[in-house]
Amino acid sequence: MDQGNNVTVFILLGLSKNKNIEILCFVLFLFCYIAIWVGNLLIMISIMCSPLIEQPMYFFLNYLSLSDLCYTSTVTPELMTDLLAERQTISYGNCMTQLFTTHLFGGVEIFVLTGMAYDCYVAICKPLHYTVIMSSQRCNSIITACCTGAFTHSVSQFLLTIFLPFCGPNEIDHYFCDVYPLLKLACTDTYRISLLVVVNSGLIALVTFLILMVSYFVILYTIRAYPAESRTIALSTCSSHITVVVLFFVPVPFIYIRPATTFPEDKMFALFYIIIAPMFNPLIYTLRNMEMKNAMRKMWCHHLFLEGK
């Protein structure tokens, strides 16, 4: 068998072969994508144009919104374009680029959520030392570590895939380029590579999720001794974050914690962390957060007041 790479274009099988369903999905995803941009930009502008940017929680939330926008934009525009196309194709180069960027921004999101959990832990369990521990320098260092970790993860995924030989067929049973669907098309034994993918993606996501859950267990244990009012404030501070973590993390292990096999359900699971989580994050953080709502109200009311003059 020729072990060279003679595939220059991949065919994406997409979400459905029914054109009516594809049109319905296009309208739905277009609405979701607009909501993602409006919601996350609103949060970013409200934080950067107010004193909230000096608080670690909102400093991290600003980067989470940015990573949400970047992450969903690596897949959603291409997905919507393909839903209206007669033939859904992607070039080899664009496929590798999409693989790299999805894992890069997905990794940033995972690590930023971890940084936010650490901030929540320090705020509740070590309140007297909070300002010292969560200094501006420490927050910047955490963001740098998040980006470095995500880049390392993405490069390793990219290197595991870029050297695979693709001799045909070239049909990817998905709506974007990911590692497991590509491993199925490689004309070589991918068993060892699939194990490395499990370690690099599945275990990282699973271990991070378990660390987050343990941190929140410690937080809940700590606030038992708090007065009722303080307990309510502490729970309000972290409940939004817990909701976002569960929404983003729960589908990930189902896709990446197993050997190199794909299931039709993978497409639905992927929608959760590519479209649904980025769309709901702004709602979760604004509807349950009085500071965020006040900052948004003051900023936009001030803007309308200046326009009215």
Automatic annotation (TrEMBL):
Keyword Transmembrane: yes
Recorded topology in the membrane: Multi-pass membrane protein
Subcellular location: Membrane
Domain G-protein coupled receptors family 1 profile positions: 39-285
Classification via InterPro entries: GPCR_Rhodpsn, GPCR_Rhodpsn_7TM, Olfact_rcpt, Olfactory_Receptors
Gene3D superfamilies: Rhodopsin 7-helix transmembrane proteins
Gene Ontology molecular function, alphabetical: G protein-coupled receptor activity; olfactory receptor activity
Entry keyword Transmembrane: yes
Purpose: Putative odorant or sperm cell receptor.
Identification of the protein by name: Olfactory receptor 4P4-like
UniProt source species: Neomonachus schauinslandi (Hawaiian monk seal)
Lineage, uppermost ranks: Eukaryota, Metazoa, Chordata, Craniata, Vertebrata
